[in-house]
Each structure stands twice: as C-alpha cells, then as structure tokens.
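Hi P.,

Sorry for the delay on this. The queue was packed all week, but I finally got your sequence through. Input first:
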Amino acid sequence: MLVIRLSRHGRKNLAVYRVVLSEHTKPVKFWYKEVLWSYDPIKHALKVDVDGILSWIKKGAQPSERLAKLLLKETKNEFFNKFIEHRERKGVTKKEEKK
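Then the structure:
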C-alpha cells in the first residue's frame, strides 16, 4: 500500500519535512518513490500540489494522519477529514484534579 507522509530532513533543531510517496513497509527517510513538496514547521509553510496529492489518493494511496490535518488546515477541504481519527479524551486534566 502506498502512503503519503512526512519525511524529516534538515539539521539539528532546524527541521524541514518533505511530503513523500512511499511504500508503507519501507523506511520513510530513504525509500520513497516521489517527493510531492515540502513543509517548513518553523515558518508554518506548507508547499504542496493538492491536485497531485488528490490524484494519488484516487489511485489508492493513503495520507498519514498528520499530513491530513495539515492539508485540512491549509485547504479547508473536508475531503481530508475522513483520514483523521477523532479521539475522545478520557481522564482528568491537572486543573480539574485540583478543584
């Protein structure tokens, strides 16, 4: 199965991520088929070709949850919402615990 996910590059404390297409069993850092674009978390700049990503998803590739959240935030396209797992919080926060 093909997965669209983030691959960390850059130097220490200055990360830059590539949006890559890879096989889900391969290591993400080295064995990718295609670099789709990049994400800079320091500048909060996501440079992607959304049409290219959508075409790979239609062919059967699946985006990672983190990438789906970034694409949803960037494009406001509700299509990416189905790749995000919505979890319920269980437990008590520290503020609630002190009360």
